[in-house]
Design a protein that fits this description.
There is one protein chain. By secondary structure, this protein is of the alpha/beta class. It folds into two domains: 6-201, Rossmann fold (3-Layer(aba) Sandwich), CATH 3.40.50; 210-311, Formyl transferase, C-terminal domain (Methionyl-tRNA Fmet Formyltransferase, Chain A, domain 2, Roll), CATH 3.10.25.10. 25% of the residues lie in helices and 25% in strands. It has nine helices and 15 strands. It has helices at 17-25, 51-58, 72-81, 97-100, 123-129, 165-188, 221-230, 256-260, 307-311; strands at residues 6-11, 29-34, 39-41, 46-48, 63-64, 85-89, 106-111, 134-141, 151-158, 237-241, 244-253, 275-278, 282-286, 291-298, 305-306. The strands form three sheets. It has a seven-stranded mixed beta sheet with strand order 5-2-1-6-7-8-9. Strands 10, 11, 12, 13, 14 and 15 form a six-stranded antiparallel beta sheet that branches. α1 runs parallel beside α6 (165-188) and α5 packs antiparallel against α7 (221-230). Mean pLDDT is 94; it is low at 257-265.
Length: 323
């Protein structure tokens, strides 16, 4: 029986865990797991291990948590292992060329987009926000750039009308694990051909910050609907009314002609963001091109609720506006 290659795995968040599990289940010789240092999280600000660390410890794997991947100590530790492959999934730092050059067979990365589209740290969110109908995972041979390496394998999946960043994240994590196992097998058998990316077709997926979730009601209803799904669960789509913050989890563009018995050219009064209550259980907000029907919402100090339940306890005055 042919001996499986030696692997050093690098990853940190939940997205990377299915690939680590797949490597174990397929009998790869995992000589080390590298993940980010424990970070202070939660209200108690206690140091918390990454999901990859917790998964590795279950199997008794050696875990390395370098403060810097550019340190001499880390570089020497990888050299001593002398891996055949470095497998990287959402590690959280750009690896220097001297690390990428250590594995004898190559350094592979799983990226959650169909490269060269959506290079960067938030490809899943931006694909949903921008209304894409398809995305996937790319397995690439790593180079010194950010998601610029040659493509070894691409696996596609549709983005459904109800997909959020969370549902897509979970699906792509499993697809990435499958893709990595296929790519490693192809590399072992010399079946894969690396294809350079078309750098002129590249788009960016920049990191999202908490404040990026604020709704811009001047946009179209369709743009706002995909924005909400793309921002769920983090950083979360939100807006303010009367100085209070409201998180919006689910909405749908309103077909004014079909849903309100109005002529399509009839406009709701007021500026974008104007709030309208229609019947006892419908909350509409004017947008740049029509209206958005909110379906799930959370007040500043409350729980995530269906709009019908939310409205039973919300006293909003006439002329109220989301800003």
């Amino acid at each position: 029986m042919k001996k499986k290659p030696k692997i050093v795995f690098m990853g940190s968040p939940d997205f990377a865990v299915p690939t680590l599990r797949a490597l174990e289940e397929n009998g790869y010789d995992i000589r080390g797991v590298v993940t980010q240092p424990d970070r202070k999280r939660g209200r108690g600000r206690k140091p918390s291990p990454t999901p990859v660390k917790m998964e590795a410890l279950k199997s008794g794997r050696e875990v390395m948590q370098p403060v810097s991947v550019r340190s001499d100590d880390f570089r020497e530790a990888i050299r001593r292992i002398a891996p055949d492959f470095l497998v990287v999934v959402a590690y959280g730092a750009i690896l220097p060329p001297e690390i990428l050059a250590i594995p004898s067979r190559g350094s592979l990365n799983a990226h959650a987009s169909l490269l060269p589209k959506y290079r960067g740290p938030a490809p899943i969110q931006w694909a949903v926000i921008n209304g894409e109908t398809e995305t996937g995972v790319t397995i690439m041979s790593m180079d010194k750039g950010l998601d610029t390496g040659d493509i070894l394998l691409s696996l596609k999946t549709p983005i459904g009308p109800d997909d959020t960043s969370q549902t897509l994240h979970d699906r792509l994590a499993d697809i990435g694990a499958e893709g990595m196992i296929r790519a490693l097998a192809g590399m072992e058998q010399n079946h894969l051909v690396a294809t350079p990316q078309d750098h002129l077709a590249a788009t960016d997926a920049p990191l999202l910050k908490k404040e990026d979730g604020r709704m811009d009601w001047k946009k179209s209803a369709r743009e706002l609907e995909t924005f909400i799904r793309g921002m769920t669960p983090w950083p979360g789509a939100f807006s303010f009314c009367d100085g209070k913050r409201f998180k919006i989890f689910k909405a749908t563009p309103l077909n004014m002609d079909a849903d309100m018995d109005m002529e399509m050219d009839m406009e709701l009064p007021g500026p974008p963001g104007s709030i309208f209550i229609d019947l006892p259980d419908r909350l509409m907000v004017k947008t740049g091109d029509g209206a958005l029907l909110l379906l799930e919402i959370q007040s500043e100090s409350g729980k995530r609720l269906p709009v019908k339940t939310f409205l039973s306890g919300w006293n909003v005055g006439e002329g109220a506006i989301f800003i």
